[in-house]
Amino acid sequence: MEYGLIGAKLGHSYSKIIHEMLCGYHYDLCPLPTEEEARAFLAKRQFKAINVTIPYKKLVMEYCSYIDPRAKAIGAVNTVVNKNGLLYGYNTDYMGFAHLCDTHGVSFAGKTVVILGTGGTHNTTSAVARDKGAAKVLTVSRHPDPEKGELSYAEAVSSGAQIVVNTTPAGMYPNIGVCNLDVAAMPDLEAVVDVVYNPDKTELILRAEEAGVPVAVGGLEMLVAQAVYAAEYFLDRKFEDAPVEIRRITAALRRDMLNIALIGMPSSGKTTLGRMLAKSLGRTFVDLDEEIVKTDGRSIPDIFAAEGEDGFRAKETAETQRFGKEGRQLISCGGGIVKKPENLRALHQNGIILFIDRPVDALAVGGGRPLSSSMDALRQMEAQRRPLYLAAADAVIPNNGTLDDALHAAMEALDEIFDS
Question: Where does substrate bind (predicted)?
C-alpha cells in the first residue's frame, strides 16, 4: 500500500473519495479491527504515508521516530509519513478544525467554550480554542469526573458558554437524531460546531439552526481540510492555495453525497421531474409514496380509508426518516410532507430541498389522491401549504412551462446551491 487510512471501522469513510479527488493517487481503506492487527501493520512499515483514525491515533505514536510538537502536545497523530523506514507523525486534525472555525467566522478570543466529549478529538479542539484565545474551555461528559472539573450536560446549559463544540459520535450515521445538549436553552450561544460529518447536519446542528444560533456548522469541511493538509505531508509539497482546494473538494463532495428532495403540491411534477433529475445526476430515485405502499401493502386510498390522514402521515414520517439519513438519492415527496416538522428535519439532515412550483390551475383533480377531490380543495390546500413549501425549500423551481424548462431551472439552482 502506498497511501491510505487505517482504523478499526472504515465502512462510511469519505477519505478515499477526498484524497483521490484531490491528488489522483490511489488511496486504500485498510480496516484493522484489533490492536494486534494495527501493531503488525505499523511494524511492517509497508506504506509511503497513511492517515490514522479511531482508535489508533495514540497507539501510532509508539512507532514514530519523530512527532511534530503540536501532535505531541495534543497526544494524537493522524498523519504518518514513511521516510526511509522512519515514521514521522503529524496532527492535521488541528489544522482542519482551525480552518473550519476560521472559515465560518468562529471567534474564540475571550469566549467560554464547552466541548462535548472526552476522547482524542476533545484534545485537538481544545488546543485550537486555547491557542485562539478562549478565556475558558470546559469539558462536558455523560459521566463527569468532578475532580477533573468536568460538567454534566445539564450543567453545561447554564455555563454561559458562547461556543459549543461536539466531539462525540452523538447523532452520527446510522444513529441519527440524537442530541444530548439543549442548545435552545443557551441564549448566549454564538456558534455550535460539530465534528461529525455524516449526516451533513446532525440533530445538534439542526436544533442550533432552529434556535437561531448565528453559526451552526458540521464537520465535513474539517474532514476535507485535514485531508488537504495531510496530502501536503504525503507529497512533501504545499498546494498553491489550500483554502481554494478545500472549498473545491468540499463542494464536490456535498454535490456527490447529499440527497435532493422535491416537495410541492400533488401532481406538480415531482415524480416525472424527479426521474429526469435522477437520471441526469446519476442518483437513485425514491418515490416516498411508492415506498409507503411497498412497506404497508395497501394503496394510499386504502390507507386513508382505514386509518385516516393521521395514520397515513405516521407511515410517511417513518419512510422519510428511513430514506432521509441515506445519501446520493433523488427523493420525490408527497404533497403533505411539509405538514410535520420532523419530516423536514429528516430531509434537511443529509440533503437539500427543492420546491416544484406549478400553478394551481394546472394541477390534476383526483388521480388516486384522496385530498385532491376537487379544484376548490386543491386551491384551499395550496393556500395552506405554500408558506410551508417556501419556508422549507432551498430553492424554488417553476414548473409552468415544459418539463425540459423545469429540469434546466433545477440544474441551475443546484449549481448555485453547491457552488456557493
Answer: 289, 313, 335, 385
